[in-house]
């Protein structure tokens, strides 16, 4: 079969789809993965054939509406207009991607289209070709619907297809462990999380625990450079310096260099999270979906510092499960972070619940098993 994977505009979207795409290719299916032009190297870097679905720079797609009007972006990520803005630029990415994907389909017609949670071109292309589309989410995000205002931005495409909304998928594939999945999440085919990252050459310190010290991982993922996330990382590192733990900070090189100037004792850089995580006693992060799942698979307790409203609910569920502590933006003072770090490192119940969650992840169906459900939807 021919399977077209349509990834959203961030590396995490690509990494979330990669295990199923790789399983399909290993099983002998023909596979392509499309994404925005700027992310194609991420796809090829994990060994998958890539398609560039856009030509317009992503900065322009974010900044300019289809009418030519400039976007005014609120600084507050919780502001209702910021949420609508996010949906609009996802819609614009989908509209431009659809043009290129039609050209691809004219020469290479897919039997099934698998889209990430931000990739609405998958649904529109599948409807146009009269083939099934499968939605592949990551963690508890976006299992219940479409981003606000994405459909507004896609009105020309929807009208052309005779639709008033994006149709639901033939199958929803979700890698969120059942115990931390929202009760109202849409029914889904479960899939085991397999960590995928852009890799570097592993050094011995990355896969061995330090002797006589605890290791704490602090990361903001690909969003670490954002002011709020960067300041939280700084605050956390300052608090941890008093606790005597070894500190590892997976971060983009420019962010890592800034942090090393202030905290010369840390190990910081863009090293593979899946290699380092099993050696850690605790991870502190922004409640990113794949970072959280990597910690869950590794049985590592988490301090969750979510900035965006959309991830606060999933962070709450992990905390209620007992594998994490969550601090909201108005709670994340230096004193509160220090207290939470001490609690997570001294109370063994968090590590116990983290190991329980790891066993649950390990029991979920592997991508090779889920592949049958995907191909049978065609």
TrEMBL record:
Keyword Transferase assigned: yes
GO biological process: antibiotic biosynthetic process
Coiled-coil region: none
Pfam families per the UniProt record, alphabetical: EryCIII-like_C, EryCIII-like_N
Alphabetical list of SUPFAM superfamilies matching this protein: UDP-Glycosyltransferase/glycogen phosphorylase
An annotated Gene Ontology molecular function: UDP-glycosyltransferase activity
Domain (Erythromycin biosynthesis protein CIII-like N-terminal) ranges: 23-221
This protein's UniProt keywords: Glycosyltransferase, Transferase
Keyword Transferase in annotation: yes
Annotated Gene3D superfamilies: Glycogen Phosphorylase B
Superkingdom to which the source organism belongs: Bacteria
Domain Erythromycin biosynthesis protein CIII-like C-terminal as annotated: residue spans: 235-373
Membership in a protein family: Belongs to the glycosyltransferase 28 family.
Xref: PANTHER family: STEROL 3-BETA-GLUCOSYLTRANSFERASE, STEROL 3-BETA-GLUCOSYLTRANSFERASE UGT80A2
Protein name per Swiss-Prot or TrEMBL: DUF1205 domain-containing protein
Organism of derivation: Streptomyces phyllanthi
């Amino acid at each position: 079969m021919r399977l077209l994977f349509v990834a959203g505009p961030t590396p995490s979207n690509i990494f979330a789809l990669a295990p199923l795409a790789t399983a399909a290719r290993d099983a002998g299916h023909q596979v392509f993965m499309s994404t925005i032009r700027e992310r194609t190297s991420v796809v090829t870097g994990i060994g998958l054939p890539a398609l560039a679905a856009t030509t317009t720079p992503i900065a322009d797609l974010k900044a300019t509406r289809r009418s030519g009007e400039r976007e005014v972006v609120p600084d507050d990520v919780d502001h209702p207009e910021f949420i609508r803005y996010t949906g609009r630029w996802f819609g614009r990415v989908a509209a431009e991607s659809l043009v290129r994907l039609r050209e691809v389909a004219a020469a290479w017609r897919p039997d099934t289209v698998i889209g990430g949670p931000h990739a609405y071109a998958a649904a529109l292309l599948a409807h146009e070709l009269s083939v099934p589309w499968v939605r592949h989410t990551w963690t508890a995000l976006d299992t219940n619907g479409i981003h606000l205002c994405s459909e507004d931005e896609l009105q020309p495409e929807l009208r052309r297809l005779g639709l008033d909304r994006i149709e639901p998928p033939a199958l929803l594939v979700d890698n969120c462990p059942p115990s931390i999945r929202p009760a109202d999440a849409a029914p889904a085919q479960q899939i085991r999380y397999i960590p995928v990252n852009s890799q570097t050459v592993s050094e011995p310190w990355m896969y061995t625990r330090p002797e006589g010290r605890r290791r704490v991982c602090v990361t903001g993922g690909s969003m670490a450079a954002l002011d709020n996330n960067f300041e939280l990382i700084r605050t956390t590192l300052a608090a941890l310096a008093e606790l005597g733990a070894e500190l590892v900070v997976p971060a983009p090189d420019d962010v890592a260099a800034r942090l090393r100037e202030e905290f010369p004792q840390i190990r910081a850089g863009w090293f593979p999270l899946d290699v380092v995580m099993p050696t850690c006693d605790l991870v502190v992060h922004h409640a990113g979906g794949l970072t959280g799942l990597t910690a869950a698979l590794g049985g590592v307790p988490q301090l969750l510092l979510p900035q965006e409203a959309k991830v606060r609910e999933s962070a709450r569920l992990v905390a209620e499960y007992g594998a994490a502590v969550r601090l909201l933006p108005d709670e994340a003072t230096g004193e509160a972070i220090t207290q939470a770090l001490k609690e997570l490192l001294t109370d063994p119940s968090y590590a116990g619940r983290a190991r329980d969650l790891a066993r649950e992840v390990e029991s979920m169906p592997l991508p090779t098993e889920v592949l049958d459900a995907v191909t049978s939807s065609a």
